[in-house]
Amino acid sequence: MAGLAALWLASPSWALSLSAAERDWLSRHPVLRVGVVPQAPYAVLDARRQALSGSHVELMNRLAAELGLKLAWTAYPNKTQLSAAARTGSVDVAPGLEQTPAGLRYWLFSGPFLRIPYKLVGRGEPAAALELEQLPGNVRVAVAEPGAAAAFLAANYPALRRWPAGSDRSALQQVLQQRADYAVVDEAQLNQLLREPEFSPLRAVGDSGATRLLRLASRQDWPQLATLLDRALSAMPASQRGHLYTRWVQAEPTPLGGSLSFWRRLSQVSGLLILALVGALLWRGRQQRQMRQALAAARQALAQREAGAEALRLTQFSVDHSTVGILWLNWDSRLRYANQAALTMLGCAEAQAVGQPLSRFQPDLDMDGWLDLWSRARSRGLLQFEIDCLRADGGSLPVDVSLSFLRFGGADYLVAFMHDVTEKRQARAALRESEARFKGIAENVPGLVFRLERGDAAGDPRLAFVSEASLALTGYPAADLLARPEGLLALAHPEDAAGLRESWRAAWREQRDWSWQGRILTRDGAERWADLRASARRHGAAGMVWDGILWDISAGKRNELELSASRAMLRDLAAHLETVREEEKAHIAREVHDELGQVLTVLKLETSMLELSLERSEGAAAERLASIKKLIAQTFALVRDVATALRPPILDAGLASAVEWQARRFEARSGIPCLVLVPETPLRLDDAKAVGLFRVLQEALTNVMRHAEAHTVTLHLQAQPGELTLSIVDDGKGFERRPGETGGSYGLVGMRERLLMFGGGLEIASAPGQGCSLTARLPLRPDEGEEET
């Protein structure tokens, strides 16, 4: 196999053409540090020869030969440590990694140079190659989880019964133990494992469809290297890539006794045994042990020295490239060392800073001040302060300095860590200005400005800020309110405290703004009306903050209450006047009907008697009698109409009968059909309510006849528990209503006011071309409604 590798490396060059810039970059980086995780067949570490072999090793050797580079190999126990080395810049190239979102943070990946399929493995030889789609639903398939194969199966075959395993070896062992029927293993690992006698009963019986893509990963800060590796891989002949796959991945397992490597190893072991025997005869055991101990100690010391040197280089690299400025100061205040960040802050080169006294960059610091700093840092261990440094260009730079005492190499130093706080200082100034502006606004707002905070669901709300206007509004200074655990709840009137508390709880539950209006008590016990408005915002992970204002609305509230009382008095007066008017109408209707009716009846009888006495008369007297009788008949009709208009007698028969009677009169006068729906059982209803609802019906039908141009009208009187409704619906031309618009119609206003007298309401729904629906609602007492049958 070593001969095949040599022949492959000796194959003709790919004639990769490089630009001048690329050749220059390669000349400045002649050695690449390559990191691998030993795993057959990709990279195998020979402990005796301390040499690596495998597909990744051969590939990198070929690429290095093509690019004219040397390789320095480092083996890492696992991919975690390899990734950690990449983050610290200890590795330049890592062959054979799979591209992952996490790896993209510190690797640049090439295109895939090897595609390793995942095979379906089972016991014995199948009659034909199996496919995952052909497997029954009760078949168990073992697969290493987590891993690319497991993710592929979960995404593409969700119904497949996956049997999780810790590794590919464990997956094959579960098939041997019959805990799983098949296993999914990548081809390279499978060919390695099948060489072991334990797995000899197993065979690859099909392809899973999943593929493992292996790439070259290079450090992110060397994009030139990534480009060169990509070009070299693209230029590599397909036959050489196929050689890698055929030689290392598809190598067929051979029996233990028929393996050439087995006999080579056996001969090597035999030779070692013979040499050990000869050595035992020639050398004394004591000398041999001493030599081995000395050799082990030397190797260990060398390894420790190399590790220390590498750690020192990493430390120096980290310090030089840190974003924190670092200065080492001698006892005489002169700079011993300054990293790149400190030089950038000071605005000078290393030669201009090292050896200079600290007073060069801090003119106010004399030797006495420096010795005082030295003494305090040595006694306390750490000093922190903020100063303004003088830059080389004469400018000033605010820095935050942490000064600590350090003894190193038999000498004493002060180490200064500097942070540029320009933005921090600007932010502090902006914050102070914002706080001053906020305080000025809060103190001049005619009300109590506050901030209420609640950290989480388990915590209690607390006042974080209260403006000094609280003294004028409540009589309490801001400090007193902030010190009280109940906060604003302490101000609420006892009768309104529950409402204030519930309004805040609702704002907390719904994560919304907080509003409340009620009474508060000042420090001297005076009662005031207050209005609270606060805007909500998130605070931390689960907290809330309300920023708001509480102001005195006592004057406006008194006006509002007085206006409400005045409106109530006016409505009561209107109701009383309407009642008096209806009673007067009823009285006049009875007087007209009874008194005038009796007079007209007597007059009619007397006229009839006169006609009988003048039966034989002719001429003008007979005509005059006929005219008098006609006038008396017209007077009778007029009396009936006046009495009915003042108070329809049908109301005495009940509201339902009055609604039907009015509908029939409307049909006779307008010619518009009217559908009436009324309760079958009589209604118990207060007479004033019946009259009021009847007048609403009359006004509504009058409007339909005058304006609606309707074809049909529907009247629906309905008694429900606690409410009586009357609906008047027409199919006329309708109209458009705007919120708050009266339209100059006193009819609608009168209807609404009539209903408001009894605690009811009026609802109107209409649109152009869609008719109009008017619904009158009256509340019913428990003793009102439909009578029981």
Automatic annotation (TrEMBL):
Chain ranges passing through the membrane: none
CDD domains attached to this UniProt entry: HATPase_UhpB-NarQ-NarX-like, PAS, PBP2_BvgS_HisK_like
Pfam families: HATPase_c, HisKA_3, PAS_3, PAS_4, SBP_bac_3
Top-level division of the source organism's lineage: Bacteria
PROSITE patterns: HIS_KIN, PAC, PAS
Keyword terms, alphabetized: Kinase, Signal, Transferase, Two-component regulatory system
Domain PAC per the UniProt entry, residue ranges: 383-433
Gene3D superfamilies reported in the protein's UniProt record: 1.20.5.1930, Histidine kinase-like ATPase, C-terminal domain (3.30.565.10), PAS domain (3.30.450.20), Periplasmic binding protein-like II (3.40.190.10)
Residue intervals of the PAS domain: 434-511
Stored InterPro entries: HATPase_C_sf (IPR036890), HATPase_dom (IPR003594), His_kinase_dom (IPR005467), PAC (IPR001610), PAS (IPR000014), PAS-assoc_C (IPR000700), PAS-like_dom_sf (IPR035965), PAS_4 (IPR013656)
Domain Histidine kinase: 587-782
Signal peptide annotation: 1-15
PANTHER family: NITRATE/NITRITE SENSOR PROTEIN NARX-RELATED, OXYGEN SENSOR HISTIDINE KINASE NREB
The protein's name in its UniProt record: Transporter substrate-binding domain-containing protein
